[in-house]
Amino acid sequence: xxxxFSGATRVYFIIGHPIAQVKSPYGMTRLLEExxxxxxxxxxxxxxxxxxxxxxxxxxxxxxDGICITVPHKFAVVPHCRTMSKTTQxxxxxxxxxxxxxxxxxxxxxxxxxxxxxxxxxxxxxxxKRALLIGAGGAGSAIGLALLDAGARELAIxxxxxxxxxxxxxxxxxxxxxxxxIGSPDPTGFDTVxxxxxxxxxxxDALPFDMTRxxxxxxxxxxxxxxxxxxxxxxxxxxxxxxxxxIEMFESEAALMLAFWLETxx
Length: 266
Hints:
Blueprint: E1 10-16, H1 24-34, E2 39-45, H2 51-58, E3 64-69, E4 81-84, H3 86-91, E5 96-99, E6 105-108, H4 111-121, E7 130-134, H5 138-149, E8 154-158, H6 162-175, E9 180-182, E10 192-195, E11 219-222, H7 231-239, E12 243-244, H8 246-262
Parallel strand pairs: 1-2, 1-3, 4-6, 7-8, 7-10, 8-9, 10-11, 11-12
Antiparallel strand pairs: 3-5, 5-6
């Protein structure tokens, strides 16, 4: 792979802080090449205060076709998008940007559809079900909206930051009135539980919810990609739960991002 990249190779960036945990650079570069695109994805570790300057600079680079955005920059890039999808309008966050014909940026958010796609692939039923979401950041916001769009009849949200939790609840109740409530780390009575927090990235992290109250009938999903099998997923499988992993979410989401970028590829 990339044995012939050159000055003609198109560039996609992925920005975050930290960035070492992401799988996108290799996976997206491979997918772009397999679909006939001479392009490479480059990881950039960038501090929050430097995001506006970076996005402005990237907009002036003629060989940059797109940007992928990860933690914690998914909200910060939206003011730089001249156009955006309905999902990004509702949530105020984006994890992908591409060029408009006039060179400006168009933003969209695929964390939600990617996560729900991985859940469904592994046997999750969402229509009419009760869902618990842990984490109300950029990924959690998108996953919450996608769970409701997929037919969940109730969504409970827990986040250690009460202000962030309440902001997301208000946004989602605006799109799906009366379906979103305050949650807790207790998974009792829920059909699905989704971890959209960073819990699990470090060996010392506590599990994001009370596993002693988890039923084998509950579907458990995670956004964390490293390690591939998080303590949450390993514990849920021992209990007998069906699961989907962060890697499976990435695989589902990568196909969506590829189509998004190739739609206007040079």
